[in-house]
Write a structure and sequence with these properties.
Arc Repressor Mutant, subunit A, binds zinc ion, DNA binding, TF_FadR/GntR_C, transcription regulation, DNA-binding, transcription
């Protein structure tokens, strides 16, 4: 409700980000009036944002309340199947269509992200940026939209698999292999490298879920 300061962000984005950073976790109730107060946004845009998030299955009904959805074991498996196919396709297309500038940005990311190894939260954010850059490199807007939805749903997976001992280093090496294949214009290798990367992330998550550790990449 401040009349100064940075331009107001969309209520939908604000709620999504709060779920993404774990302010609201799966099972938490979202109350319109509390959200309006927290974000300094009026209730109408909050209500619209909540409806949109419910349509996207990011929120669920619990009686009369709306709660942050959680993914069961089967939903997780289904999500990873879709993610693997779409990310593989994005890498394949990026190997064909990414501009030299886009490839350079990707390469720079794979180098600078090593500096974040001791900060899993920053590394998780950098990881999202990296994948988003690959998606954009595909130059296919419908694919980018579908991947956005997949990545928004990934926000329901609580903390990051990149926090698991040793996973950060492996993930960055895998990113490097993906970029090298894209740089060579080798579609098959880019597809395979990205699939292998997602498969490793999923494996890490399954292992640590079994240990009662919530992990996601
Ligand atoms: Zn990654």
């Amino acid at each position: 409700m401040s009349d100064r300061g940075p331009p107001q962000r969309d209520a939908y984005e604000l709620i999504l980000e709060a779920i993404d950073v774990g302010t609201y976790k799966p099972g938490d109730r979202l109350v319109e009036s509390e959200l309006a107060e927290r974000f300094g946004v009026s209730r109408t845009p909050i209500r619209e944002a909540l409806q949109r998030l419910e349509t996207q299955s990011l929120l669920a009904r619990d009686g009369r309340s709306l709660i942050v959805a959680s993914l069961d074991h089967n939903q997780l498996a289904e999500l990873y199947v879709v993610r693997t196919e779409l990310e593989g396709l994005a890498a394949r297309l990026a190997a064909k269509h990414a501009t030299p500038e886009e490839v350079r940005v990707l390469r720079e990311m794979t180098e600078s992200d090593w500096g974040l190894l001791n900060d899993p939260t920053a590394l998780a954010r950098a990881n999202k940026r990296f994948h988003r850059q690959v998606h954009l490199g595909s130059h296919n807007r419908y694919l980018v939209q579908q991947l956005d939805l997949v990545h928004r749903t990934m926000a329901l997976l609580a903390t990051t698999s990149l926090a698991v001992e040793g996973r950060g280093e492996s993930a960055l090496n895998e990113h490097r292999a993906i970029v090298e294949a894209i740089e060579r214009g080798d579609s098959d290798a880019a597809d395979a490298a990205l699939r292998a990367h997602i498969s490793k992330a999923y494996e890490t998550r399954l292992k640590h879920d079994a240990d009662g550790f919530a992990a996601a990449e």
